[in-house]
Pentatricopeptide repeat-containing protein
Amino acid sequence: MFRRGQFDDAFCFFSEMKVKGHPPNRPVYTMMITMCGRGGKHVEAANYLVEMTEIGLVPISRCFDMVTDGLKNCGKHDLAKRIEQLEVSLRGV
């Protein structure tokens, strides 16, 4: 499990990237989503996934799987369904 300081450092670094005009790329978003998912921060992971798509980046399938599974496991079924629909709309599956 991730320690609190590691989350804080990663979130701070991520925010600084955007503030300094360095937009995060797909691997950086993937890392943030993975870290949130493993740390039980499933809603935050979903927010990063949506933000990623809003700037034109397509998440890898594993990110969608991790986020939807995590949301379902913590009882956020409606949000999980919206994330699944987002994946379908992006991939045309």
